Amino acid sequence: GLYAAIGWFKAPKCVIAAMEYVTISASSWALRSDMRFKELLPSATSRRSWSFSVPGSLRCMATGIPFWSGRKAEKPQSRVDSMPMRNSKEESQQAAHGGVRTVVVPAAGMGTRFLPATKTVPKELLPVVDTPGIELIAEEAADLGAERLVIVVAPQKQEIMDHFGEFNVLQKRLLNRGKEEQAEKVSRANELIDAVAVTQESPLGLGHAVGCAEPALDAEEDAVAVMLPDDLVLPIGVMDKMVRVREEFGGSVLCAFNVTPDEVYNYGVFDVEDAERDIEGVEVKKVRGMVEKPAKEEAPSTLVATGRYLLDRAVFDALGRIEPGKGGELQLTDAIELMIQEGHPVHVVVHRGKRHDLGNPGGYIPANVDFGLRDEKYGPALYPALKEILAEFEAEHPEVLEREQQG
Ligand code: G1P
Known about the structure:
Radius of gyration: 26 Å
Bound molecules: 1-O-phosphono-alpha-D-glucopyranose
Strand content: 15-25%
Largest sheet: 9 strands, mixed
Number of helices: 14
Helix content: 40-55%
Number of strands: 15
Strand order of the largest sheet: 7-6-3-8-13-10-14-12-11
Distance between the termini: 110 Å
Shape: globular
């Protein structure tokens, strides 16, 4: 009887103990899954979601991954942390007007021209020699003085962000083996700039992608830079000129490149006139209008938009008012054209340098040859190897030389 009575008292404790066991197991499982998640996205410690209205009935869910929040001790101090606070409105306006804090990188495209590679690897992670195109863009943005890269990604392309995470285990392993140079390559993307992801749920066009980035901007940012990761504009530095032009004329500034009349149908094309004033060392034009991918006969010029934009914040309002354009997509060009028609000043810096289009194999291969030849490790061997390949090809295809001689 005594044991039965004790059993009664014990029973609930057993139940409690069993429940505790289940709870502890469940939470340790959850912790383990969380750890698994964190291994996949090494630096992601919190996620924020928000939604906002974009043109017509379209809605875009944006998910921000503020990469190092809560892990500042582990991360090398970023320039955001070390920036002195602005203490007056004028200072703040000055900084926002001249400087670029955020660079938006639309990277949600499907990469169809790179299939089958892009079945599993986002095209932005394909390397130029050994460095993914998106890291080259991050370098250019950091060089401009930007603090944050807002990368617009598709839901199935979140692994682009992994490239900007910390890889402590790999780095330690490399350092333990005396591979300092490789360890430095591993940490470079993480140290360059703060990368934040914004998700574009559906591929509704470049204009829509840029619109998705608006919630990630700070209230005092009155301009935003956009860099298309497909475009390498060389030598680096055209954005600095664009910042100077915006300081002089206000409004928005784009980068123009001269192409042949047969190529204009691939681009946004500018209708230009002389700028109000010259700016030393910068070829600048005022834009009267802009049209997305016109037929050769309808193109207003052969000056086309390359992937560098310095846009006034007013662009988000214009993006909210345009209708789907070329290809049924919301085009950034159409928003800029709307702004021009409403009196917003738009200028272009005419770039006379080089441009590589990493968006298709036809441009990606020459970019690799160009960067490869200039690489101190691979260049010396690549040069004779290329000459040999060319000589062999010319012997097999004498018609290419004849065609070249005919001009
Ligand atoms: C986009 C723009 C186009 C611009 C081009 C530059 O086109 O819509 O105006 O000239 O980038 O690369 P996409 O190449 O995405 O078709």
